[in-house]
Structure formats: C-alpha cells, structure tokens
Design brief:
The complex is a heterodimer of chains A (114) and B (113). Chain A has 114 residues and is an all-beta fold. Chain A contains no helices and twelve strands.
Chain lengths: 114, 113
C-alpha cells in the first residue's frame, strides 16, 4: 500500500536561513512525487514534482526537492527562506500500479520568522 | 483562465439533509477527484474519476456519492450527512491522472450540525 510520512508537524526557521521540510514515502511501483503548498483560506498550489531523471528537482518560488531512492525520501528545500513562505506544505505520492490515487502526507506547517 | 470552481464556499447543514457540492473545470481534463482535509490527517481521497461515467473509490468513500455525466462536472453528493463529515473539501483535476500536477479548487467548508 502507498503511504507518505511527513515526520514534522511544524518547522520554524529564521528569514534568510535555509529550510528543509521532510517527506518519506512507500510505494510498490515507481513513485511519482509531488509537493503542494496551501496558504490560509486557499486551495493547494503545485510546487514541483519528480517523475524520472535528475534527482534534484526545481520548482516554483525558489523551492527545490531532492529525490533519494535508497532512503525513499523527497525532502523539500529552499536556500533562503522568506516570511511569505510561511504556509502548510504537503508531500504527495502517486503509484500507478495501485490505481490512479494520490496519497497525501499529513502536512507540515512552516513558520518563517523575520 | 484555467480553473477548478467549487460551490458553495461555505455550507452549514443539519444531520440527514441531502446536499450537493458542485465542481467544474474548464480545461477539458479527464481526471477529477474529491478530497477532504482534516487537521493532522492531511488530504484523504474520497472518489476519483478517470473520465465520463468512470468513477472509483478513494480511501474514504463511505457516506459519499459522485457522478460524472459530463467531462467538466464532478459533483459530490452527501445523501444523509452526519457530523463526522464536517470537514474542508477540495475538488481537483488533471489532464489524465497519471503524472501531471493536480489543480485544486478553493475548497468548501462544510459543517454538519
């Protein structure tokens, strides 16, 4: 069965510092991995995805994520955090061998302090 | 503008009173899906549809119905709502449901009293 774990309920960083939001996954086939962000009172917005190829994926708003097959991880990173990055972040995995479902993690609340 | 439109944005109802939350997309997407968001649980998939007249259960389908009579519309039906269905609901779509990103609606906050 597919599953996604985001081990941290919240992450706090100072503005200008690098940030990492962690995600690990479990699938039976090839993983298709996604990160989404949710701002208050808004729907989810796509940040980036990994399908195949380069393990470092670049996305919107300066975010990037590193796919690590051996550790089954897909951590979201940004070199320099902004206060406006404060939001709820969701990791998601799709495993087409298990049907066309997308499984989301529980979410990680990111707080960036000025 | 490409968008997924959900209505209503907020809904308060009472136990047992049938309701429908509408979802429409203007991108000719084949794949549409419904999720509920609850604190600490993230998003859980209720139902999804690969195309017109093709629907399948997600992880939490109990108490919900869907239909896909037209490609653009994918309504969520609660025939007898209960308080445990109080949640934030999102509709989403993508081109085929394979490797593309999901585009989400703005959400429907449902309260069942």
């Amino acid at each position: 069965a597919q599953s996604v774990a985001q081990p941290e309920d919240q992450v706090k960083v100072a503005e200008g510092n690098p940030l990492t939001v962690k995600c690990t996954y479990s699938v039976s086939g090839n993983p298709y991995l996604f990160w989404y962000v949710q701002y208050p009172n808004r729907g989810l917005q796509f940040l980036l995805k990994y399908i195949t190829g380069d393990n470092l994926v670049k996305g919107s708003y300066g975010f990037e994520a590193e796919f690590n097959k051996s550790q089954t991880s897909f951590h979201l990173k940004k070199p320099s955090a902004l206060v406006s990055d404060s939001a709820l972040y969701f990791c998601a995995v799709r495993d087409l061998s298990g049907g066309f479902k997308t499984i989301f993690g529980a979410g990680t609340r990111l707080f960036v302090k000025a | 503008e490409a968008q997924v439109t959900q209505n209503p944005r907020y809904l308060i109802t009472v136990t047992g009173k049938k309701l429908t939350v509408t979802c429409s997309q203007n991108m000719n997407h084949e794949y549409m899906s419904w999720y509920r968001q609850d604190p600490g649980l993230g998003l859980r998939q209720i139902y999804y549809s690969m195309n017109v007249e093709v629907t399948d259960k997600g992880d939490v389908p109990e108490g919900y119905k869907v239909s896909r009579k037209e490609k653009r519309n994918f309504p969520l039906i609660l025939e007898s709502p209960s308080p445990n269905q109080t949640s934030l609901y999102f509709c989403a779509s993508s081109l085929t449901g394979a490797v593309e990103k999901l585009l989400f609606g703005s959400g429907t906050q449902l309260s069942v009293l």
